[in-house]
Design a protein that fits this description.
2 domains; binds magnesium ion; about 25% strand; alpha/beta; about 260 residues; 11 helices; binds adenosine-5'-diphosphate
Length: about 260
């Protein structure tokens, strides 16, 4: 059973169709990458999954339950998804201590938390994303860009989601820090068995983290498949073009050598 199943999804804003007939499956514990140029409709799909984009046709299921519409089961299904966005600066309330932001996100679990259990949970989550668990009382401005993105990852994990959708999470970061955040997500994948949709315009980044890749262009999937065969033998000229842009970036990323503390 797939944890997330998108079937023949179309989205339009007003008269404008921005996503057409997109289908995508995510198996538990796997990461699928969604790659395509800016404006191809990637974020619209992410937003549709959590109920924030207008769906004109098609279906979205989370653990086989429809996540479309206003029924209580659909709302509950949407709460099993956590989104992480590109910009960690605007994602965090500048006046709220980071521990409080993370604590608030534990509500999405639907569990009852005692004060001390919640505090412990926040400390654990901070450690899980390689941040000092004694810094929960500090404001976002005390942290670097990469650290803030790790705070938003901790906050997403706090909801104990079935699926994480990471939308351009490394795009606003320095190249050296991108590697740290990617490696963290990869470690979490393995430790926690996360299921993730990883969205980026950068094929090098998507390739690094994804088991399977969907290539999007002008609101449609032009090609999809397991990462290695797709990368070794891309069928669509558009995928080849994205791939041609990769080698230089791939070298610059230095993913395995990223500093541990960026
Ligand atoms: N809220 C919105 N209202 C109208 N048009 C939008 C809205 N959000 C996105 N679009 C348009 O939809 C298209 C796809 O955008 P988006 O899903 O953000 O692409 P991507 O994430 O791949 O860059 C773009 O042409 C964009 O301008
Ligand atoms: Mg986008």
């Amino acid at each position: 059973m797939n944890v997330l199943e998108i079937k023949n999804l179309s989205i339009h804003y007003g008269r404008r169709n921005v996503v057409s007939d997109v289908s995508l499956s995510l198996a538990p514990g796997k990461t699928v990458g969604l790659v395509g140029e800016s404006g191809s409709g990637k974020s619209s799909i992410a937003n549709a999954v959590v109920g924030l984009a207008p769906i004109s046709s098609g279906g979205i299921r989370v653990n086989s339950v429809s996540a479309v519409g206003t029924r209580r089961t659909a709302k509950r299904a949407r709460r099993r998804i956590q989104l992480i966005f590109q910009d960690p600066f605007s994602a965090l309330d500048p006046r709220m201590p980071i521990g409080e932001s993370i604590a608030e996100a534990t509500r999405a679990t639907g569990k009852k938390w005692s004060r001390s259990a919640r505090k412990d949970r926040v400390r654990d989550l901070l450690s899980q994303v390689d941040l000092d668990h004694n810094r929960a009382d500090e404001l976002p401005r005390a942290f670097s860009g990469g650290q803030r993105q790790r705070i938003t990852i901790a906050r997403a994990l706090a909801g104990e989601p079935d699926v994480i959708i990471a939308d351009e999470v490394t795009s606003a970061l320095d190249v050296s820090v991108q590697g740290t955040v990617l490696n963290l997500l990869r470690d979490l994948q393995q430790e926690l068995g996360l299921s993730m949709v990883f969205i980026s315009h950068n094929l090098a980044v998507v390739r690094y983290i994804s088991d399977e890749i969907y290539v999007m262009r002008h609101g449609r999937i032009v090609e999809s498949g397991a990462t290695d065969p797709l990368m070794d033998n891309p069928q669509d000229p558009y995928t080849r073009r994205l791939l041609d842009a990769v080698p230089a970036l791939g070298r610059r990323l230095h993913l395995e050598e990223a500093p541990a503390n960026a």
